[in-house]
């Protein structure tokens, strides 16, 4: 996987501060040790200091003493973060007492560190559910300027080298927004194209998928995809975006030629955008499990800073790769 090596090398060339709120989780701690050893990022671990140190000894980890540890029970900026959270959420009814309590929650601390400029990105989710990881991020870090919706993309390294970039296809939304409106779907399409551009280094050919190709079926669900396509093309006229396309018309040249002969994208899509989360989440897991693809993600897009949610079934290398990806996104944001 050359692409991941490139992402890791780019991260090493300009080290970013990445916070790992699940500092006492074994896979997270092992990944932190490797990341520090390889010089990929400056790692901040949130968790009980003694527990982290004891775990590092028991697991034989040599580099954890070089991580910054933030102990939720008692850390230097607790009051600063409490006040920051209170200011951000008081209009939503949060009291200072509630803010103080949440400023001791590792998932809130991670996001508050980013908001306060003390970290550049966050990776969590080896222990916590997607909702619990995303909620503080959506409340504190919020969406990027010009964006109203957050979504999750996967880099799918499939074995079918004839598709995408040597089998690599970017898929979204597989993780966040259950039932996007046409306008939200348009944003998801454009931000997935940007993710492909930033990480894959190839011009995106974005297909917004449906069970219909260019009017072959009539249904309100199809209408949503047609509207989303028109909106997405207006949002970013420089990007090749087309819909509504069925998956085979999007991917297979002969089928694309037959079903959508005038489409710039049909038959050569390298970015697949799903009409709902139900489709996206099921589809990526089927491609992964039945198709034998390596899935890297979800890479959250549309957020004002890189925050990524791991699957609870993640491996040490998943944590490692997501830290490198977050670091790349932080570097790209700083270079904008
Ligand atoms: N984009 C941008 N902002 C959002 C989004 C979104 N998609 N969803 C919610 N928000 C904002 C809201 O506007 C709100 O902001 P505010 O409080 O400042 O007004 C804040 O986030 C919280 O919103 P709620 O509606 O209270 O949050 P909710 O409880 O609905 O949680 C969440 C949002 C966590 C994203 C929810 O929609 C969810 O659970 N989605 C599915 C996640 C999931 O389970 N994915 C599948 C597993 S992942 C995998 O398999 C890889």
TrEMBL record:
Segments forming domain Phosphate acetyl/butaryl transferase: 3-327
Pfam families (alphabetical): PTA_PTB
InterPro entries, per database record: P_Ac_Bu_trans, P_AcTrfase, P_AcTrfase_dom1, P_AcTrfase_dom2, Phos_Acetyltrans/Butyryltrans, PTA_PTB
PANTHER family: PHOSPHATE ACETYLTRANSFERASE (PTHR43356)
Name of the protein described by the UniProt record: Phosphate acetyltransferase
UniProt pathway: Metabolic intermediate biosynthesis; acetyl-CoA biosynthesis; acetyl-CoA from acetate: step 2/2
EC assignment: 2.3.1.8
GO MF assignments: phosphate acetyltransferase activity
Similarity remark: Belongs to the phosphate acetyltransferase and butyryltransferase family.
Record's keyword terms, sorted: Acyltransferase, Transferase
Domain of life (superkingdom): Bacteria
Reactions catalysed, as given in the entry: acetyl-CoA + phosphate = acetyl phosphate + CoA
């Amino acid at each position: 996987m050359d692409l991941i090596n490139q992402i890791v090398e780019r991260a090493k060339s300009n080290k970013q501060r990445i916070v790992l709120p699940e500092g006492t989780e074994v896979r997270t701690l092992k990944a932190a040790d490797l990341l520090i050893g390889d010089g990929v990022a400056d790692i901040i671990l949130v968790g009980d200091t003694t527990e982290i140190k004891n775990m590092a000894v028991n697991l034989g980890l040599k580099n954890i003493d070089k991580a910054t540890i933030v102990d939720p029970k008692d850390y230097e900026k607790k009051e600063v973060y409490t006040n920051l959270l209170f200011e951000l959420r008081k209009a939503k009814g949060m009291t200072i007492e509630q803010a103080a309590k949440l400023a001791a929650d590792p998932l809130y601390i991670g996001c508050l560190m980013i908001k306060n400029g003390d970290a550049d990105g966050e990776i969590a989710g080896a222990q916590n559910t997607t909702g619990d990881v995303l909620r503080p991020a959506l409340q504190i870090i919020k969406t990027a300027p010009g964006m109203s919706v957050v979504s999750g993309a996967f880099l799918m390294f499939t074995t079918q080298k004839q598709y995408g970039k040597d089998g690599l296809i970017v898929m979204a939304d597989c993780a966040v927004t259950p039932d996007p409106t046409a306008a939200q779907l348009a944003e998801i399409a454009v931000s997935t194209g940007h993710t492909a551009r930033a990480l894959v280094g190839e011009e995106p050919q974005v297909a917004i998928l449906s069970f219909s190709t260019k009017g072959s079926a009539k249904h309100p669900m199809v209408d949503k995809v047609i509207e989303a396509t028109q909106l997405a093309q207006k949002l970013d006229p420089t990007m090749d975006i087309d819909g509504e396309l069925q998956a085979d018309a999007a991917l297979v040249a002969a089928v694309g030629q037959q079903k959508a002969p005038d489409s710039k994208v049909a038959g050569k899509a390298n970015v697949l955008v799903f009409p709902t989360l139900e489709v996206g989440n099921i589809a990526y897991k089927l491609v992964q499990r039945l198709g034998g693809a390596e899935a890297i993600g979800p890479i959250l897009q549309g957020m004002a800073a890189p925050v990524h949610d791991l699957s609870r079934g993640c491996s040490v290398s998943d944590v490692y790769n997501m830290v490198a990806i977050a670091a790349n996104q932080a570097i790209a944001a700083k270079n904008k």
